[in-house]
């Protein structure tokens, strides 16, 4: 009985291998990727339920092989690559499967970056991406130091600054974009920096005014600002261009080198001074959240706005403050009034624009969404 069964099975397998009883088309299982990097070889694997003759056509080029497991290395051109696999068994039963493999070209980001800057200017980099490939990572460095990068669908923005006191030279700006396949595209630009040619200005502050600048007062104000910066929103929150908070006469420019007394340390003016009559309304340069609103010995009536993305605007020496900590202010909303409180020689607004705590030239932001 057992012998008979063995004989029957033996006949069946012989019949199958000879194709006498085979009416079923070969089953195919394939591993073929949908998307591959263009210009690079990729592998496919097709497995049949029995040994077959494979006829393949790839982008119109035919080839043939007799095997059960087919492994091919193909080259992807950009766009659609068409693969047709036909497996024919010994009894002439055939199975045909078609595949479309998309060859995805390398990322070609559009780059718009600051090209020239004076020491102390902010630097902005704007990137635009096509839908393909998908971008995994964007890194931007200025003179070797990484800038903060903010992503939104199809776009990225990086913000940085050129330090005050920088010499005249070209700073390398490097953009590296890594796509879904791990391919890195690198673009090199330059920011031509001009040193600041200005002469040192000796400030004539009265001893009474100067006496407020004690180490204790300076430390208190520094701590207040550090706490405000630490609470800043990670993502940029503005969408419209920055505006001039006061239409005043520029009485002292950003970065002006100055001394508070003969032989004293030379410091750089960290903001723009806009002279205007006492009581002139001061407007928020852009949408923001109030992080500081109060009176201090040196900065006087001070408001600090958090615009997100490491960008803060600061308004010094105000006579009146019209907002409170935590308020959400609109672009152009009045935050206070011009005064001469704190370390000041006359009514003016001292306005600062900081990126990652570094002071940049406020006037470079006016009328722009990104400097
Ligand atoms: Zn000032």
Descriptive labels:
Glucose Permease (Domain IIA), 371 residues, Immunoglobulin-like, elongated, 8-stranded antiparallel beta sheet, 6-stranded mixed beta sheet, 29 strands, binds zinc ion
Notes on the structure:
- The chain has 371 residues and is mainly β.
- The protein folds into 3 domains: 2-104, Immunoglobulin-like (Sandwich), CATH 2.60.40.10; 110-194, Immunoglobulins (Immunoglobulin-like, Sandwich), CATH 2.60.40.10; 201-364, Glucose Permease (Domain IIA), CATH 2.70.70.10.
- 10% of the residues lie in helices and 49% in strands.
- The chain contains 3 helices and 29 strands.
- It has helices at residues 2-18, 207-210, 215-230, and strands at 28-31, 35-37, 41-58, 61-75, 79-88, 94-104, 110-113, 116-118, 122-128, 135-142, 145-146, 148-152, 155-161, 169-179, 184-194, 201-202, 249-252, 257-259, 266-268, 272-275, 281-283, 288-296, 300-308, 311-318, 320-321, 328-329, 334-337, 348-355, 358-360.
- Strands 17, 20, 22, 23, 24, 26, 28 and 29 form an 8-stranded antiparallel beta sheet that branches. Strands 1, 2, 3, 4, 5 and 6 form a 6-stranded mixed beta sheet that branches. A 5-stranded mixed beta sheet has the order 8-15-14-10-11, with no helix packed on it.
- The chain is elongated.
- Residues 252, 269, 271, 273, 350 line the site of zinc ion.
């Amino acid at each position: 009985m057992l012998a008979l069964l063995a004989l029957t099975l033996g006949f069946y397998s012989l019949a199958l291998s000879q194709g006498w009883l085979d009416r079923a088309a070969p089953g195919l299982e394939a591993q073929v990727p949908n998307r591959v990097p263009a210009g690079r070889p990729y592998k496919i694997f097709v497995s049949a339920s029995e040994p077959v003759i494979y006829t393949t056509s790839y982008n119109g080029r035919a080839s043939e092989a007799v095997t059960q497991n087919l492994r091919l290395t193909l080259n992807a051109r950009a766009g659609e690559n068409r693969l047709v696999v036909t497996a024919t068994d010994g009894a002439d039963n055939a199975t045909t499967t078609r595949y479309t493999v998309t060859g995805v070209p390398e990322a070609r980001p559009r780059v718009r970056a600051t090209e020239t800057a004076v020491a102390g200017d902010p630097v902005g980099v704007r990137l635009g991406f096509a839908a393909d490939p998908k971008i995994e990572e964007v890194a931007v460095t200025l003179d070797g130091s990484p800038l903060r990068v903010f992503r939104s669908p199809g776009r990225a923005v990086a913000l940085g600054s050129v330090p005050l006191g920088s010499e005249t030279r070209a700073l390398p700006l490097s953009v590296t974009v890594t796509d879904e396949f791990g391919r890195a595209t690198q673009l090199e630009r330059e920011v031509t920096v001009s040193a600041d040619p200005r002469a040192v200005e000796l400030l004539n502050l009265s001893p009474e005014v100067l006496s407020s600048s004690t180490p204790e007062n300076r430390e208190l104000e520094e701590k207040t600002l550090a706490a405000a910066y630490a609470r800043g929103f990670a993502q940029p929150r503005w969408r419209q261009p920055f505006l001039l908070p006061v239409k005043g006469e520029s009485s002292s420019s950003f970065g002006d080198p100055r001394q508070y007394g003969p032989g004293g340390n030379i410091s750089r003016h960290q903001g723009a001074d806009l002279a205007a009559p006492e009581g002139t309304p001061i407007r928020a340069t852009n949408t923001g959240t109030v992080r500081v609103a109060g009176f201090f010995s040196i900065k006087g009536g001070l408001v600090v706005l958090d615009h997100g993305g490491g960008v803060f605007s600061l308004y010094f020496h105000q006579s009146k403050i019209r907002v409170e900590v935590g308020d959400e202010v609109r672009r152009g909303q009045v935050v206070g009034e011009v005064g001469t409180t704190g370390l000041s020689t006359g009514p003016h607004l001292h306005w600062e624009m900081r990126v990652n705590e570094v002071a940049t030239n406020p006037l470079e932001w006016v009328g722009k969404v990104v400097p």
